[in-house]
Amino acid sequence: MGRSVLVTGGNRGIGLAIAKAFAAQGDQVAVTHRSPVEGLPGELLPVQCDVTDTAAVDAAFTEIEDKHGPVQVLVSNAGITDDGLLMRMSEESFTRVVDANLTAAYRVAKRASRGMLKARSGRMVFVSSVVGLTGSAGQVNYAASKAGLVGLARSVARELGSRGITANVVAPGFVDTDMTRALPDARRTEILGQVPLGRYASPDEIAAAVTWLGSESAGYITGAVIPVDGGLGMGH
């Protein structure tokens, strides 16, 4: 049997691509989701969980441990957006996004560390965004939450590295998902004009970076931020 892998928010988009990539390697993969899901590949274990609820996170890990064993690879991917200009952004909007994107990552990392410390081995990968490095008008809350993942991961890397646990960040740029396909053509063209490679990433390209960081081949890499953004954020 492969390793026990958890991908939060792994029921769609980038998270689903990551989950399927680990499963294709023979790993036992669980994915958390908030709403009921249909049509997930049979090799994935769906676990309902609101990552903003500490008790729900603990219950999800307990279920995964019962079925797959302690989580050996954690991919913290779940997140939300609630865009708006600073002057119009409510405090509730700011704190809700930070809770779902950053505090939730702390919750799952803390819970995963329990089994990883006992095993003296583990991989944590946090899915951030190029926006967390470059900033983005209208995304103060989202950018702050994604930037915070870098500090979180690097602190975990320093704190748990002596126990064989690595913590890294993947920072995607614009990815070809349902969200970006729904953008107006003019906005899509504008975005592509900023990307040196002149195209969107596929979810599989993000998954490739995440699975590599979760592998034995990346055992001496920790505290790193790996951009998968077509050159959009270079220099940051």
Plain-language structure description:
- Helix 1 (13-24) packs across helix 8 (203-213), helix 2 runs parallel beside helix 3 (91-119) and helix 3 (91-119) packs parallel to helix 5.
- The mean pLDDT is 95.
- This protein has a 7-stranded parallel β-sheet with strand order 3-2-1-4-5-6-7, with helices on both faces.
- Helix 1 (13-24) links the parallel strand 1 (4-7) and strand 2.
- The chain contains 8 helices and 7 strands.
- The chain has a single domain, classed as NAD(P)-binding Rossmann-like Domain (Rossmann fold, 3-Layer(aba) Sandwich), CATH 3.40.50.720.
- It has helices at 13-24, 54-68, 91-119, 131-134, 140-160, 178-181, 185-192, 203-213; strands spanning 4-7, 28-33, 44-48, 73-76, 122-127, 165-172, 225-228.
- The chain is an alpha/beta fold.
- The chain starts with a strand and ends in an 8-residue tail after the last strand.
SSE map:
Elements: E1 4-7, H1 13-24, E2 28-33, E3 44-48, H2 54-68, E4 73-76, H3 91-119, E5 122-127, H4 131-134, H5 140-160, E6 165-172, H6 178-181, H7 185-192, H8 203-213, E7 225-228
Parallel strand pairs: 1-2, 1-4, 2-3, 4-5, 5-6, 6-7
Outline the biggest β-sheet: 7 strands, parallel
Rg from alpha-carbon coordinates = 17 Å
- N-to-C span: 40 Å
CATH topology: Rossmann fold
Number of helices: 8
Number of domain units: 1
Labels describing this entry:
Rossmann fold, 8 helices, 7 strands, 44% helix, seven-stranded parallel sheet, 236 residues, alpha/beta, 16% strand
